[in-house]
Amino acid sequence: MEGNSSDILKQVRKIEIKTRGLSNEIFAGKYHTSFKGRGMAFSEVREYRIGDDVRDIDWNVTARIRTPHIKTYEEERELTLMLLIDVSGSRLFGTADKTKKNLITELAAVLAFSAASNNDMIGCIFFSDKVEKFIPPKKGKKHILLIIRELIEFVPQSNGTNISEALRYFTNIIKKHCTAFLISDFMDTGKDGKANFSDALSIASGKHDIIGIRVYDQREKEIPDVGIIEFTDAESGEKVWFDSSSKRARTIYSRNWEKYEEAVNTVLKKSRVDNIPISTDDDYVAQLIKLFSYR
């Protein structure tokens, strides 16, 4: 817990005021046009017109009336939006005004309110190296505030990361096509430097519309010269000393980050998953607008 019940409610209210306003003013229209509905619903039968697709001819009606008629369809606008939220130990890192956890919470809230303004259902999966919590999709402000509260105060049982577990659970429990945001730092690579979740992501993206949001902090990308510092791996607990006064050490550190980025981007691109990186000191509003605009 990050405080008593009164503190949590104040945090929820603060995030609601900030993110709901952003959602209503900026994202509602872009969200609506950026994500397709879950399919085409039957609308009516009408007489065939030149140029209509012959594959839509309703042969039963045509035989009965003895003039060609076709079935017409309209897009089902109502969506189910799923948020796959990384709650592993590394999300607690942050050196700017906010931690990765703070950023994830605000991103999730903005997306949830955007979905609500489109009358969509919103659900959540919290994951570490296992599925920690499942919140079934529902509509309504009360439901969104529940999600925000959980994002603020949820304490996972594990600190590790296993994105494959989350994706497998997601594809098994959500049967109908939906839009899903995978919000994570994607720190799930093997000793060979390759991402561990390639196969699971490929299967999930074949069934659903998945968008990746990779959150990070600038100090994970590069380190300034501040002398000898101690690093603690938030997921494994391992501690190491690092001499940041060494230019060679800082260069190796930055190159390792570049390799990690390349590994993650390769898997996302292979699975045709749209994605954006967002830093804890970024203007995430601009980044989300960019994402919505190119979809």
Secondary-structure map with pairings?
Blueprint: H1 5-34, E1 40-47, H2 59-65, E2 69-75, E3 80-86, H3 100-117, E4 121-127, E5 131-138, H4 141-153, H5 163-173, E6 179-184, H6 198-207, E7 209-216, H7 218-221, E8 228-232, E9 239-243, H8 247-270, E10 274-279, H9 284-294
Parallel strand pairs: 3-4, 3-6, 6-7, 7-10
Antiparallel strand pairs: 1-2, 4-5, 8-9
Helix pairs in contact: 1-3, 1-4, 1-9, 3-4, 5-6
Task: Give a description of the structure.
It contains 9 helices and 10 strands. The longest helix has 30 residues, at about 5-35. It is an alpha/beta fold and about 300 residues long. α1 packs across α3 and α3 runs antiparallel to α4. Helix content is about 45%, strand content about 25%. It starts with a helix and ends with a helix. The chain has helices at about 5-35, 60-65, 100-115, 140-155, 165-175, 200-205, 220, 245-270, 285-295, and strands spanning about 40-45, 70-75, 80-85, 120-125, 130-140, 180-185, 210-215, 230, 240-245, 275-280. The mean pLDDT is about 85. The strands form 3 sheets. Strands 5-4-3-6-7-10 form a 6-stranded mixed beta sheet, with helices on both faces. Strands 1-2 form a two-stranded antiparallel ribbon.
